[in-house]
Automatic annotation (TrEMBL):
DNA-binding region per UniProt: 17-56
Gene: rex
GO molecular function: DNA binding; DNA-binding transcription factor activity
Repressor recorded as keyword: yes
Name of the protein this chain belongs to: Redox-sensing transcriptional repressor Rex
Subcellular location(s) of the protein: Cytoplasm
UniProt keyword Nucleotide-binding present: no
Positions of NAD(+) binding: G91, A92, G93, N94, I95, G96
Species annotation: Clostridium cylindrosporum DSM 605
The protein's assembly and partners: Homodimer.
Amino acid sequence: MGKSTVISMAVVRRLPRYRRYLSELLENGVDRISSKELSERMNLTASQIRQDFNCFGDFGQQGYGYNVKELYNEIARIIGLNKSYNTVVVGAGNIGQAIANYSSFGKLGFNLVAIFDVNPKLIGLKFRDIDIRDVDDLDSYLDENKIDIGIICVPKAQAQRTADIFQDKGIKAIWNFAPIDLKVQEGVVIENVHLSDSLLTLSYRLNEAELFGTEEK
Ligand code: NAI
């Protein structure tokens, strides 16, 4: 990275979107893009984009735009996509199966290596060639295999216990789908995905004008 300052979370949250747009530009054979053009496509201001990209180093030349490939590579590296990660899913119900069946995570370098559940009807079945194992074997599996990311898709009441096993076995990153704020040790990072929060925000925005009698901005 060109600069050694820590990147703010607000910028970090925009990185996946930058990566996605830059990847589309590369696919379309675009070598260079100005912050103005990118801002029009992404619905951000050009100055916001310039500020964000300045955090990573010097990728633009005045009047000449950004080198798309260099910028893409640097953003991918900052996100950590220059490595690969082993992941496990615990809870092979609706959400767990949807994640297990989504092969694009693997293309990004997130390799699902095992799935665990308590339900005897599910244990032994396979998703995309990955066995569903008995959750009683989770501890020993994590002793024997280096796992980078634990994915929690169990009911809320079982989620903290699952997170505790992950942490005890040295997993440092948890992707949590259960609707609960999990307690994690220092040094463990957690990302919560709550589809219903997003849906409720949408509902609020749908009703905002009626509530406050104003047009949406
Ligand atoms: P589900 O009931 O279809 O699947 C849960 C699975 O976990 C079942 O197969 C069950 O046998 C298994 N399980 C239960 N206890 C376990 C344990 N101790 N160890 C291993 N496996 C265990 O539920 P669904 O719909 O897949 O939801 C899973 C979680 O995701 C729930 O916490 C739910 O509230 C949450 N959810 C989250 C959403 C989001 O946006 N993040 C959206 C919908 C659900």
